[in-house]
Write a structure and sequence with these properties.
Layout (H helix, E strand, L loop, with lengths): L2 E5 L3 H13 L3 E6 L2 H11 L3 E5 L7 H11 L5 E6 L4 H9 L4 E4 L3 H13 L4 E2 L1 H20 L5 H11 L4 H8 L3 H15 L4 H10 L4
Parallel strand pairs: 1-2, 1-3, 3-4, 4-5, 5-6
Helix pairs in contact: 4-6, 7-9, 7-10, 8-9
């Protein structure tokens, strides 16, 4: 019998998921309301699979997955539940080789199939999530290919702008006049093919600048 650990901060979701999976014959070894409790329960109960909400309070589902991967631990396998298609979080989950990824709105229909596949050693990712990830990775690759390299100063200006600093604040941080900052900002916009600070922030994250 596959032994499961569940983590979600919504009691109704947690209990409903536990009831559904118990009815399907799975053994629920722990039900955790936050990530810290889940981390402790993983060490105590050694479940086969941990089913984790991606944004559970405390140590998030991604943080727990990251820790398991950094230790090189074979157990538990990890299934991530997500209520929204946040591209950055989903891409990180895929890059961390989550064993399963399911949209919460599809849990009732797909979680059993996901667990059964994961238990047998097959990675299972919701089709809607997979389409979004593939599209996002393709856009990131296209951006990376299309962008021109920034100078060291343009990189500094872009990094600070992506963190939300105004031109005046960037100038004070780097010892530049505001007009010089505007010049470097314009160059960065042109080279990265963006037209707003929001687009610049997204591009900076894609390129690892932020």
């Amino acid at each position: 019998m596959t032994r499961l650990l569940l983590a979600d901060d919504h009691p109704i979701v947690l209990e409903g998921l536990a009831a559904l999976l118990q009815a399907e014959g799975f053994d629920i070894v722990a039900r955790c309301p936050n990530g810290d409790a889940a981390t402790a329960a993983i060490a105590t109960h050694d479940p086969d699979i941990a089913v984790l909400d991606i944004q559970v309070p405390g140590a998030s589902g991604l943080a727990i997955l990251r820790g398991i991967r950094s230790r090189g631990a074979a157990r538990p396998k990890v299934i991530i539940l997500t209520a929204s298609l946040d591209q950055n979080q989903i891409v990180e989950a895929v890059e961390l080789e989550a064993d399963g990824l399911v949209l919460k709105e599809q849990v009732a229909d797909r979680i059993v199939e996901c667990i059964e596949n994961v238990a047998s050693g097959v990675q299972w990712i919701d089709n809607d999530v997979l389409k979004r990830v593939i599209g996002d990775l393709a856009r990131r690759e296209a951006r990376a290919v299309a962008t021109k390299p920034l100078s060291a100063r343009e990189t500094e200006v872009a990094r600070l702008a992506a963190r939300g600093l105004r031109n005046r604040d960037i100038g004070q941080a780097l010892g530049l006049t505001e007009s010089t900052v505007k010049m470097h900002m314009g160059n960065a916009f042109d080279k990265l093919g963006v037209s707003s600070r929001a687009e610049l922030a997204a591009m900076a994250r894609d390129l690892g600048l932020a």
